[in-house]
Amino acid sequence: MSISVYDRTRVDAWQWFDVPGYTTNYGYVESLIRLGVAQRIHQWDWQIEVAQPAVIGLPTHAVSSVTAQGQLGLGGTYFASNTRSSPAAAFLKQGYVRYRASGADKSVQLGRFEFVEGLETKPANATIGWLQANRVANRLVGNFGFSNAQRSFDGLDGHFGSGTWDVTAMAARADQGVFNMNGNPELNVDVQYLAFTKSALGQHVLVRAFGIGYHDGREVTKTDNRALAVRAADRGNIRIGTYGGDVIAAIPAGHGQFDFLFWGALQNGSWGALSHSANAADVEGGYKPSTAAAGPWLRAGWFRSSGDNNATDDKHNTFFQILPTPRVYARDPFYNLMNSTDEFVQVMDHPVKKVALRSDLHWLQLTSANDLWYQGGGAYDNKVFGYVGRPSNGHSSLASVADVSADYQVTSSLALNVYYAHPWGKSVVGAIYPAGRNSQFGFVELVYRLDKAQRRAAQ
Fold it and tell me: Is residue 67 part of a domain?
């Protein structure tokens, strides 16, 4: 039997785009404690884990009465989702049983669990492993790990694989959580996932094909570019199929290594009363010299997801990000991957073994100037849709963003992470926030992890 402890304390600071008369400069503290007990008996194992999230000192005046301005940073989002300045709760985060077949990579899991699409395998190649975790996983379905209450699923998760390949199937209902501190209730939101993943060419290439079914039967007003009265009257369910794949390659070249990544997806189905058809694609590449002592890594990429060009027809063409962890791809989470075009460069370095540095530059556009500027990461309670949209006012230039992070693994159990971002708002932002179109966001966090069984085994 093992006992696990996870404790994350984060101090956030926001300077949202300026709105006179409201609180746009503020800080608050997030605390998340997760306590788990697990045991393996022959080919069976089980886990029970409880979570206790709390947010202290939220701003009480960071939600504008002007609909387009809305929640002024995530402090406003937490307050609106809990109606208290210091919300806290405790709930069952995970509780499942799992059967593992002997002598093979085969398992079936039933109960409440976390799920992240794209992490079906553990690549032996470190470059591919980083790209899989940071540039593929969580795009469409994830645990929203950056949020304080996070996300779990109630259902069934199965894996079947051998050596270089894996088949994963999952069917589950999403649970409440994320910005709502009570993660216990189920939502009338379900997802089905099927993927085939295979490594090739001596672990230098990883390929995945996937399909995702999504259904949202909640009676909440959808977020899209139709008029509010039209959206409020549309209580039809959302049923969307997403079909896609990705390729990751890491190829040695001289005194270094080139990497390449392609990810793409198509969607069809129904968006309430509308038919749904959308698409998204991402192309990235980089080079990491092997001779430099610190190992700097330079990468660049281009992402584009479709937007909706006509708010009055019977079609919905905005790419839907489903239930992701949006901050993986928008480290300053004032935008996401819906109706989005993102050109970016990344620089990463390890000046010493325990320190990881990273800096990104993003040039953000709305794919369609007739659609919205979207933010959020999907359904998290039964009161609101889970995505918010601000009007483009006929513009497409959203923002430029520069950020930097430093992650220091102090000990095997303790990590210190620091992040800072500065967006420069363009015409889309300026039309909504004319008093100040620039923003800042940063945090400092301590993360402590302990597994007593592993600690005893190491001794």
Answer: no
Q: How far apart (Å, rounded) are the C-alpha atoms in residues 346 and 328?
A: 13
Angle made by CA atoms 301, 283, 157, in degrees to the nearest 5? 115
Best CA proximity match to 438, nearest among 5, 11, 16: 16
Q: Is residue 36 part of a domain?
A: no
The phi-psi region of residue 222 (left if phi > 0; otherwise alpha if psi is between -120 and 50; otherwise beta) is beta
What span, in angstroms and rounded, lies between the C-alpha atoms of 437 and 424? Answer: 7
Q: What Cα–Cα distance (Å) separates residue 202 from each residue in 67, 198, 246?
A: 54, 11, 18
Map residue 325 onto helix, strand or coil. Answer: coil
Question: How many independent structural domains does the chain possess?
Answer: 1
Task: State pLDDT tens for residues 10-68.
Answer: 999 999 999 999 999 999 999 999 999 999 999 999 999 999 999 999 999 999 999 99
What domain range includes position 315? 103-408+419-440
Say which CATH number the domain at 231 has. 2.40.160.100
Q: Say what the pTM is.
A: 0.94
pLDDT tens column, 108-126: 999 999 999 999 999 989 9
Q: How far apart are CA 236 and CA 214, in angstroms?
A: 14
Domain-embedded: residue 399: yes
Closest CA to 73 of 87, 63, 83, 60: 63
In a domain, 350, yes or no: yes
In the chain, the amino acid numbered 388 is: V
Query: What distance in Å separates the CA atoms of residue 88 and residue 85, rounded to the nearest whole number?
Result: 10
